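Hi support team,

I submitted a single chain yesterday and got back a structure, but I'm not sure I'm reading the token output correctly. Could someone confirm the output below corresponds to the sequence I sent? I've pasted both exactly as they appear in my results page.

Thanks,
R.
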Amino acid sequence: VTVASDGKRAKTGSSMRDLGEIRDGAVIFDDVIRWRGPMTEFADACSSLGIAPEELQLDDCSGLTVLPGFVDSHTHIVYAGSRAHEFARRLSGVPYTTIAAEGGGILTTMRAVREASADEIVHVATQHAQRALEHGTTFIEVKSGYGLNLESEVKLLNAAVEVAREVDIRLVSTFMAAHDVPPEFRSSPDDYVRHIVDDMLPAVADIDVLSFCDVFTDKGFFSVEQSEIILQAASGYGLGLKVHADEIAAIGASNMAARLGCVSADHLEYTTEADVDALRDAGVVCTLLPGTAYTLRLPPPNARMMIDRGAIVALATDCNPGSCLSENMQNVLSLACMTLGMSIEEAIVAATLHGAAALRVHDRVGSIDAGKEADMVLYDVPTYADIVYHFGVNHVLGVYVRGEMVA
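Hi R., thanks for writing in. Yes, this is the structure output for that exact sequence:
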């Protein structure tokens, strides 16, 4: 399953249903993909590449299915502590907003992060990253945002650097001190915004693998005006811009994302058609997180409307300790098909090529195309449909990252 895009950043509208499937296919690769096509053209491909077929190592995958590695473009796996007790409260009917207003939610994890050692945070994050890799994710984004002060945010971003060294998964990180307002600034949130801009951004901008800045722009968190101040400052440091938008209420976050030319707007449970048109026209990736809507019992984002209106729709896990504790992108495919009304083909495109677009790495990964890096996953299923059809289990037999089997 190539998810071939003919060199384009994305496949939108009806083209999302075309996976570029090759039956009885083959791939020639080292660290990058040199050729892929039907087995009947293998000998000619070797000749054109100047390769003797007998010199190649053959991995026989007869009866199996190969896909590009998943690109999970939205996670929060650098953290400490547990919120299982809050999860149980939500199941008994207490809204997340109530728990947050009581000082729970993000602030529960904030307190745990501030008390935890760097090694403890790295240990938790590497476990998540390894499980993600074993379930078929080869490229992952990791957000900070559970420290909410300079020392702890740096601790989280450095933990992401360590994860990239310890796990064979590919990784970029996102600075998200604007995840919530910490208690010490609760009476003066604008002062916290200035603290992020004046003190935090200059201190973190050069941390390795840091690529983006994200803000939680929503009711009870950061206003559009506050978010614009942070995001415009982050842009000055060369960071790509992302927004948590329209998860709790529609306050203009997605429109702001379009206006600022953000790389992605994520969540989008309450996004309107006009918002989607603005995001589409600005080329902003609409990253949907069906696991979060499922866990929080939120109305699911209207993926069907977004796809039909030509937006770039991506899927991600939102793996985090509060609202979706899962690293499994195979389950995200299932949730997208069953709760968002997406087809299997649309879900696969959204979880691979469009995830790569949401991280600005679509020229490197996200499809099995000649010239891209050889990030591929081998599944023990006869067709790609079986990954969704037989849900709740791990179908992965092997994971290739830059051509090396790493899991």
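A quick pointer for reading it: The mean pLDDT is 97. Let us know if anything else looks off.

Best,
Support desk
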